Amino acid sequence: MNLLRFDSEPAWVNGATTFWRDRLRLNPRLRMCLPTGHTPNAIYAEMAGAVQRKEVSFQQAAIFTLDEFGGLAPDDPGRCINMLKRHLLDHADLPAKQFYALNPDARDLDAECRAFEAAAGGPFDLVLLGIGLNGHLGMNEPGSGAGSETRRVDLHEITINSSARYVTHQQLPRWGLTVGMKQILEAKEVWLLANGERKAEIIRRTISDPMSEALPASLLRKHPNCSLFVDATAAAKLHS
Ligand code: GLP
Question: Kindly report the CA angle at 131 between 58 and 1, in degrees rounded to 5?
């Protein structure tokens, strides 16, 4: 795993956005899988600004959502699709037909997941990831093996409680749909993004603990082209 450590949060945002812009310029047809949550929002804002300044374009690209909460109303601001729209898609130039989301309201969730994987059609070019406090990726909770597919999952208590930061009510989501570890690990390139001191301990464990499905983020260490983007506070427990 490559380690990219930035001295400040603005430098981290700028660094990740610069790399991302370059990837998209080199390959305008880039097929990306993108996370939501709080971590990527400043990067999405920078990227949206670059699109508006016509420095880069999503017109030929494709974007797939990484995960989605179940049990929330379609217009709930905490739905991943709504977060992604609010922070990136509403301000970018991606054609709607090149956006693919996991739909937790589908009648047959297994068929929905298989259709999503079929739409992806092969390895993603680039997967961006945040990290949960228990080391989850997307909604691949501890116990998710390297071969786990896109599927319905029950959320762990810590993840349910964390989701309170995204919704404005008490009905917290208890399950979701997630791209599986298999599709993440098969991607051509993976970036794990982490900022802030609340992520420092799980970042330390991701790098130092034994590689195990008990800590899904640690499985990224076997990926041949994975980079960890951390700001100084998230990197605070890493030894040089
Ligand atoms: C959530 C999401 C993940 C996200 C992670 C971190 O549960 N399912 O996709 O990356 O937890 O969230 P945040 O960036 O808000 O800390």
Answer: 80
